[in-house]
Amino acid sequence: MTSLSHSDGAPPDEGQSVPRPRGHPLRWRRLLAGLGVIHLLIVALSFAAPMFTGGQRGETPFSAYVDVNREGNLPTWWAVAQLAAAATSLVFVAVLARHQRVRGTAAWWILGCLVLLFCLDEGTGLHERLEGLILQFTDVPDTAFLWLVLGIPLALIVLVLAAVSARHLPEESTRLIVLGVVTLLFAAVGLEFVAAQSVGLGVPPLAVDVLSHLEEFLELVAGSLLLAAPLAAVRTRTTGKSTSFTLMDRSRR
After folding, report:
1. Cα–Cα distance for residue pair 220/85, rounded to 1 Å
2. pTM value?
3. Between 242 and 172, residue with greater pLDDT
4. What is the spatial distance between Cα 117 and Cα 46, in angstroms, rounded to a whole number?
């Protein structure tokens, strides 16, 4: 990593901000588009798997391996890998911000830790096990309401934490982070609850399948938004055989 200095080599006047040379932005929009195509393929393969196997969803090894509603398979690996990449990128720009003394260092660290927790939850299936944890302390037969009691306040805390942390970051990164967290919470809390309740209300299985696959698709999209957010704040400059990175901060208008 290379910290870029004042362009003319002269010290700036006291009270005058140091201009940061702009390099080339990373192609994070292309990354988002490419990841979106992969997400669609994964969800489509999961939805169409019963047509290939001739059995019910999850009844054959192939169907279970690509089913987005199961744990420990291809979709789970992909989601965990994407969130791990997002957490790594956020930590990288946090280190870069500290090295270059750019505002928002604490925000990048907070967001990196937050996404790392998302990654750990996705890999361990912690939120799916909350129902069993709740039943150890209560004998209420309907645990769906209890999930909301825990899930909604937690979702609001995460949303506020992300929004407050991101307010010091570049505008594009802030938008991507807030959109990513909102999308993730909408899918993980909102659509998951709706899908669970639809089963008890006698909604046709095909409709429940569509809803659950939409939920998983939006969770994957949220992960890609969180991955793109730190990349949107980075500029690169290549001189000879070396490449330097510059982290942008929020513009002052």
Report:
1. 13
2. 0.81
3. 172
4. 26
**Would you say residue 231 has pLDDT above 70?**
yes
Centre a 10 Å sphere on the Cβ of residue 135 and count the other Cβ atoms it contains: 13
Tokens (6 digits) for 167: 């307010």
How far apart are alpha carbons 123 and 81 in whole angstroms?
Answer: 9
- Distance between CA 6 and CA 19 in Å, rounded? 7
- The token duo for 203 is 């909604």
**Cβ atoms of 177 and 223 closer than 8 Å:** no
Secondary structure, 3-state, the chain = CCCCCCCCCCCCCCCCCCCCCCCEECCHHHHHHHHHHHHHHHHHHHHHHHHHHCCCCCCCHHHHHHCCCCCCCHHHHHHHHHHHHHHHHHHHHHHHHHHHCCCCHHHHHHHHHHHHHHHHHHHHCCHHHHHHHHHCCCCCCCHHHHHHHHHHHHHHHHHHHHHHHHCCCCHHHHHHHHHHHHHHHHHHHHHHHHHHHHHHCCCCHHHHHHHHHHHHHHHHHHHHHHHHHHHCCEEEEEECCEEEEEECCCCCC
- Over 80: is that where the pLDDT of 61 sits? yes
Instruction: Write 41-50 long-range contacts (CB < 8 A, 24+).
Output: 42/66, 42/68, 42/74, 42/75, 42/78, 42/220, 43/68, 43/75, 43/213, 43/216, 43/217, 43/220, 46/75, 46/213, 46/216, 47/209, 47/210, 47/213
d(CA 90, CA 105): 10
Q: In what order do the strands lie in the sheet with 24-25?
A: 24-25, 234-239, 242-247
